[in-house]
Design a protein that fits this description.
cytoplasm, elongated, 3-stranded parallel β-sheet, mainly alpha, aa_tRNA-synth_I_cd-bd_sf, nucleotide-binding, aa-tRNA-synth_I_codon-bd_sub2, Arc Repressor Mutant, subunit A, binds glutamic acid
Length: about 450
């Protein structure tokens, strides 16, 4: 008998753009699902006041950027009927009760409790309301919100990352499941969905540990088998501050705009602060195999943008042509595999491949670095000795040897002025490989531009 595949989900609220910490949660779910499970994208979009269509679009773009394709997608805003029926069940069983306190009243009660040394836990006073009390409150214009009556005692689970966990439910307030405007709240909708969609594994940030105690109690009340939970450590900024969706700087969107490689972001977000070293990977599947072995640390992990940029460059250097060909095409970079193999080791971002393509086949950059005027004689000689076409990878060696023989220049004194004249840049791809793309005509123009005489096409 084969085991049923595990079902994972990523459940962002589209109330901001996803950041690197959200990416950690996304990947720790989506990657194991690639190894024989199913992956659900669930949009937790019940907070109508904060949800915006551009954030929904942003989440889709981010998944697309990583190359993650969900097996299913759901939006909580379209599932109200399911929440309503679960609500009725809990209500019929007396597990939920209406309460009428305003946010200000609740806040005052919490402050009072703290001041008198009691934990700021809701005292269940609404449970004592009679029918007549409730009618009177409603006559005042108050509408009820609905609380779930937590069980007594402690609740425990074996956390996939943190080991055995136990929380005393008496230390928690009965959670509000439905707001006074009728909106269902996350702690409830998430449980109803996880049960209804057959989710077997929930991997999420440590900030949800307490929710898990409440949600396990809800699963029990709904007589649903709970998923296995695992809570990972959180990522922070370099200063140790928590990430928030409102703080754009570490958003996936901004990293994308900066040209950071998606595969590097995936590796960074999933491996930082874990038992596995942060390292470049060749594909999401390769990363999934590493993530399957990792254990997140208990301490938060600090994001280091310099480390991320270095990982991005290394990732790029290792990418085979097939992995980038469509992106190169979109950037207008030609030259096929030969150009990619030549250029990749020099790139910090893929966008730089387009700059090199332009240098090779169109023109030098505007801020090109020019050779020292002292090298005019050397450059004139190089122009005079330019071999006839066709040019291939052997051309540079033959040409530079001839220039060396004619001028006596060697090593850096020979190569650097020519590199600057031909590419406008003090370093870059191997000239032997770049030269065939530049070609004779452009090479001669460039040499002429810095003092070399044009040579007629027939001269040697
Ligand atoms: N919408 C919740 C969040 O973004 C989902 C938490 C969960 O995975 O249950 O934090």
């Amino acid at each position: 008998m084969s085991a049923r595949p595990d079902v994972y989900r990523f459940a962002p609220s589209p109330t901001g753009y996803l950041h690197l910490g959200n990416a950690r949660t996304l990947l720790l779910n989506a990657l194991p699902a690639r190894q024989g499970g199913r992956f659900i994208l669930r949009l937790d979009d019940t907070d109508a006041a904060r949800v915006r269509p551009e954030f929904v679009e942003g989440i889709r773009e981010d998944l697309d950027w990583f190359g993650i394709v969900p097996d299913e997608e759901h939006s909580q805003s379209e599932r109200t009927a399911i929440y309503q029926s679960a609500f009725e069940r809990l209500r019929a069983e007396g597990r939920i009760y209406p309460a009428y306190e305003t946010p200000e009243e609740l806040d005052r009660a919490r402050r009072l409790a703290r001041a008198s040394g009691r934990p700021p836990v809701y005292d269940r006073r609404a449970l004592k309301l009679t029918e007549a009390d409730r009618a009177a409150l409603e006559a005042e214009g108050r509408r009820p919100h609905w609380r779930f009556r937590l069980s007594d005692g402690r609740i425990g689970w074996e956390d996939g990352f943190r080991g055995a966990q136990e929380i005393d439910l008496a230390s928690l307030s009965d959670p509000i499941l439905v707001r006074d405007d009728g909106a269902f709240l996350y702690v409830f909708t998430s449980v109803v969905d996880d049960a209804d969609l057959g989710v077997t594994r929930v991997i999420r940030g440590e900030d949800h540990v307490t929710n898990t105690a409440v949600q396990l109690d809800l699963f029990a009340a709904l007589r649903s088998r709970p998923p296995a939970f695992a809570h990972h450590n959180l990522l922070t900024t370099a200063d140790g501050e928590g990430l928030s969706k409102r703080q754009g700087s570490l958003s996936l969107r901004s990293l994308r705009e900066e040209g950071v490689e998606p595969l590097a972001v995936a590796a960074y977000a999933s491996l930082i602060g874990s038992s596995e070293a942060v390292r470049p990977v060749a594909s999401l599947d390769a990363l999934a195999a590493i993530v399957a072995e990792e254990r997140p640390s208990r301490a938060p992990a600090r994001i280091d943008s310099v480390e991320l940029a270095a990982l991005s460059a290394k990732t790029l250097h290792g990418l085979p042509f097939e992995a980038v060909s469509s992106r190169l095409e979109a950037l207008g970079v030609g030259g096929g595999e030969a150009f990619w193999e030549m250029v990749r080791g020099n790139l910090a971002t893929l966008g730089e491949a387009a700059e090199w393509w332009r240098i090779a086949t169109v023109a030098l950059k505007e801020n090109a670095e020019r050779p020292d005027p002292d090298s005019a004689a050397l450059i004139a000689e190089a122009a005079r000795l330019a071999p006839l076409e066709p040019w291939d990878e052997t051309t540079w060696k033959a040409w530079s040897s001839a220039v060396s023989a004619a001028t006596g220049a060697k090593g850096r004194a020979l190569f650097q002025p020519l590199r600057l004249a031909l590419t406008g840049w003090p370093h870059g791809p191997e000239l032997a490989k770049l030269l065939p793309f530049i070609g004779r005509e452009r090479s001669l123009e460039r040499l002429k531009g810095v003092g070399g005489e044009p040579a007629p096409a027939t001269s040697r």
